Request: fold
Amino acid sequence: MPIVQAYHILIRYPYIVIQPIIIDIILLAILFGTQALTLTSESSSRVLMAVGMPSMFHLFSLPFSWFLFVAILQWSFGQGGYIRSLIASCTGTTLSMSQLMKANMRYGLPFLFLQLAMMLATSAVMALLILFFGTIGLGAGLLFFLVFRVLLIYLEFTMVTDRLSFDTALRRAFQTLKQHWPPSIATAVSLLIFSGMASLLVNRFHSPPMLIGYLIIYDVLMSVFLLALMLTYMEARKYEG
Reply:
């Protein structure tokens, strides 16, 4: 199973999670150092639909603010190196710090534009579905975004592995998803269930010491899911030639 294999890969190459954890710690320090916003305990859950590297802050419904923009910048300029580290670990190699930083800078702006565009697009589509179809629209929206989320992950993978323009990478990512959609969707369902449960827990109980524990556990487990998707992606690409 890809998830089991991904777990063993992460054990061999734990450096994969260092960058997400460092970024989350920086964001947590900014949050409490500037009191940019107040996190209140509430019984709510949020499934992961965001583009980008793992981050505990994806589990909160953050209002649009300068803090959110800083977070998006850090996620965008860390995503290229994170994907490169996933590729390297799945092929049994390691990534040097210089290679990681080079990938971060190379793909920082493309991923920033992608993040902003997807935030606007997903909000607009979900609002329209709920407006016109009510509860059925909400269910249809979640199903659509489940598939869309996997497509976006494969789009990010393709942009880094093949160094393609957005439109070409999107077409190739769609073909990859089409080639191996059952294991891809199965892994995505597991990812969304986990993120929903994690969001419910984090939104209810989040004292500062607990947040540090949450971010480490969440970034590690999410990296297992993303490694599993990378393995599925690489397997599908073998059949594409």
In short: The mean pLDDT is 82. The two ends are 23 Å apart (CA to CA).
